Amino acid sequence: MNSTGERLFRILLRAYPREFRERYRDDLIAFFHEDLHHPRYGSGPLRSLHFWTTTLRDLARAAAQERFGGEPSTPHGHQPAAQVVAGLLFDVRDAIRSLRSTPAVTVTALAVLTLAIGAGTAIFAVVDAVVLRDVPFAEPWRLAAINEVELPGGRPVPVAYPNFADWSRRQDVFESMAASSSGPLLTTIDERPEQLRSYKITANLVELLRVRPAMGPGITLADEQTAARVALLSDSLWRRRFHADPTVVGRQIKFDSGSYVVAGVMPQGFKYPIGPAVLTNIDIWIPLTPSPRELVRTDARTYSLRVIGRLKPGVSLEQASARMQQIRDALAADHPRWFTDHGILVRPIKDSIVTPSAQSWMMMLLGAVSVVFLVACANLANLLLARTATRSREIGVRTAMGATRSRIVRALIVESVVLALAGAAGGMVLAFWGVEVLRATLPANLSRVSDIAVDLRVVAVATLVALITGVVCGLLPALQLSRADAAVALRSAGRSATAAAGPQRVRSLFLAVEVAFAAILLVGAGIFASSFVRLVNRDLGFSPVGVLSVGVNPKVPLDRAAYQQAMRAFQSSMRDALDRIRAVPGIESAALVAGGAPLTGSWATQTVTAYGRKFEGDEEVVLKQVTSGYFETVGATMLRGRGITAEDRGGAPPVIVLSEEAARKYLGDRDPLGAQIALEAEAPRTVVGVVRGMRLLGPEAEIAPEGYVPYEQSAEHSVSGSIVIRTAQDPARLIPAVKNAIWSVMPGVVIPDPRTFEEMFATLISQRKLNMMLLGIFGALALLIASIGIYGMLAYLVAGRTKEIGVRMALGAVPSSILRMVLGRASLLVGAGLTAGFVAAIWLERLVMAFVFQGIPHDPIVYSASAVLLMAVGLLAAFVPARRAANVDPLVALRAE
Amino acid sequence: MTRPPVRQPERPPLELTPIGFEVLLSLAASPLHGYGIKLAIEERTSGDINLGSGTLYQAIQRLEREGLIAGGSEGAVRGSDPRRGRTYRIEPLGRASLENHLRRLSRALDYARAHRLLPSAKR
């Protein structure tokens, strides 16, 4: 606290007039340091709060007197400013003293607030960074994204080059319009080649964003028009590969596809496009130059551009949108083929960054955490009500001595605000940690994940919310109490708390509300958890455990003859590589697959002709080219016949293995074994086996008809392929050996990061897992807070009714009946809250159904499990005070007053 | 701008504010630095008067301007720690004003005791 505290104090010293400050600054700071260790500020977490309120109060009063006059000897100066500040600080000090006098309530309230504000702040930080925040460019409100939209439907799609060119020429609402599109992967030429991500931009894009390259001239209009091979480097690439060399501009970088001249380095932190990490981690920006074919409107339409514009000053988004619509309509008249199914959409750039589904997901999380926050607020209000009820005598004394109602209300609100702000401070610490965890856990395809942070903006919002919470939660007991007649309060306080029946009823209501919110969250958590269990237990049709997938991307020559030759060379190299990999110790089996390894998300289909019928479009077969050992390696189940073997060579009779679904679809009731089917324009193949269908795209995918042909019998397969490897060891540990085996046969070939099937599976379910965990945490928090509320309420009740219980026992009530009475009261409260919560949950359920896998509406298991859990925890919380009540000694209780 | 303390020992004793009086009383025995003054007052009054830095230095500023005390680190006190801030010592005018104030208090106290306005110290 020393250095930060001193820095803060130095800033605060500016409150003094200059003359005073200059003469006494060092003395004041010396005083400050010594005072830090003064014993009168107590110990524990409230110490620094006590110290600072004291210091601030003194500083505010002295500074106000120095500036506005008044005598040091009169602590409450006559200047209104000084008076207000001094009065407020007095209230704050009073509040802290009072809060310290009831440590149990204070600590409980602080814990509840810290947890709820911590969770809320962390989630808000995520939602703010992903959805709410504007883009990090100058005057972001003037930036618009311009898309084409599919008609009907209105789904935004990228823009075709001729449309961008015509829009730019005809429009008069934007300062300029710029286009960009993803560029090629550029492979560096050196020992261990690296693929750099490039992005193509028009020359005006950087200027439109009001950014300047950190060095170099950047991409010029001439570069764009002449398709110059110049490149802007990202700051990280410049540091990583060029060791931050200041003379890099003008140098050549060599890639396998040619070389580029460095035209500049972008400033640190520059990101474009904005979006998920896979999109924003760009290493190199190069000029976007259309090919001559793209400039004329032929029948072939390619939509690939991301277009943005900067609105002219004074032009609104609506005006721009209307103008662009006019331009589109005029173009549609000239080129009807291009526009019958395409409209135009102008929207704020921010809205184009996050998909609507991600937006609603974020809002769902924010909604869920808000419910946790509401539980905490109800709890805080309840704690404060209980607390003020025990202080009615003190308030009565104050009122009797002339304290005005507004004065008392103010004191009580200040107390609650101080509490809320202290809770917010604790919550912020929790949020810092929570955000780290969330940032690492959120799916990488979510926009702007790396921007998530608890920054000033988030802190400000959290503080404001805490302030409002404090005022609202403090207002309630304040009004309740200050309404009380001083005389009544003086007479009744200290006696049975049941005398105050009104507050009791309000508190029961709050507790029921708390339980109801907790019930809603528990149902939500249950819905997510049960759906997640269904998801991970779904049968994939193969076994991902212990399987590694290694992709291999060879260089591809573009002309046809060279392509054929390269492909043949690649095939034989892959065979050799496969043999070497199979020889690596610890590898049980290995096989090659082209057309997309399972779970990678890549796949290809072909038409099928069987018994004179051709299956096209949606009915095509998902086709993979595999070597022998493939089915064993991925753990598929052969149902009939055989798999692909080493004998299925180029010259051998062409064969195919079908999945169960494919056999049924293409062959109907006929016996599949021995049947003939043809793919695309090929000669027919004989079906030699049937395999169980697989969910190749992950647990949420439906099973599509699959076909497997021998790798060496396929003419038209992709040049790239994946090697799948099964091992009993940790598959990740085999990666270096496997890479070396491949490089020994194909030096210099690019091997993108190998991944295990389990990793890919984990990625596929990560968002659902995160949802389940977050909702689980929210549910647990709500349950914890509600049980604290139940405990506190009943403990207070029992304490207040000790005399009554004593009388009952003196009259012959047995302890078990007292226990029943208290627990009955608790189950009544919990039951009422539970019922209300379930009614709300049944209505709210549909809001989360879009986020779960195969959600079951009104799932009886979820509801009954939530009810049992809530009731059990509620009764457990009630049991401690109930037992205390049952153990009341009638003699002691009756003598107590 | 700092006004140099005006030294006019021949000037008549000045009236003291309550805090000014406490500060002078603390400095009467020996020179002290700021926080030392605060601790001395706190100890003497059993914690009834608890000065913050702002209030204390407001009083010090006033006493310095009136020439009742003088501050400095120029070896005013042997063994004083420069990190604790300037050390203040009482000036002749300050001592005269303090004595004047104390005499008046003493007379008031005698009167109060004689008329049983205060519980007697002995009993």
CATH class of chain B: Mainly Alpha
The computed structural class of chain A is: alpha+beta
Superfamily (CATH H level) name of chain B:
Winged helix-like DNA-binding domain superfamily/Winged helix DNA-binding domain
Looking at the structure, what is the overall shape of chain A? Answer: globular
Q: What kind of sheet is the major sheet of chain A?
A: 13 strands, mixed
CATH fold node name of chain B: Arc Repressor Mutant, subunit A
How would the global form of chain B be characterised?
globular
- Percent of sequence in beta strands of chain B: 5-15%
Q: State the helicity of chain A in percent bands.
A: 40-55%
Give a structural overview.
The complex is a heterodimer of chains A (897) and B (123). Chain A is 54% helix and 15% strand. In chain A, strands 12, 13, 14, 15, 16, 17, 18, 19, 20, 21, 22, 23 and 24 form a 13-stranded mixed sheet that branches. In chain A, strands 1, 2, 3, 4, 5, 6, 7, 8, 9, 10 and 11 form an eleven-stranded mixed sheet that branches. In chain A, helix 1 (2-12) runs antiparallel to helix 2 (18-35) and helix 15 packs across helix 18 (486-492). Chain A is globular. Chain B is built from four helices and three strands; from the N terminus they run αβααββα. Chain B is globular. The N and C termini of chain B lie far apart (55 Å). Chain B has one domain (18-114): Arc Repressor Mutant, subunit A. Chains A and B meet through helix 2 and helix 3 of A and helix 1, helix 2 and helix 3 of B.
How would you summarize what this structure contains?
The complex is a heterodimer of chains A (897) and B (123). Chain A is of the alpha+beta class.
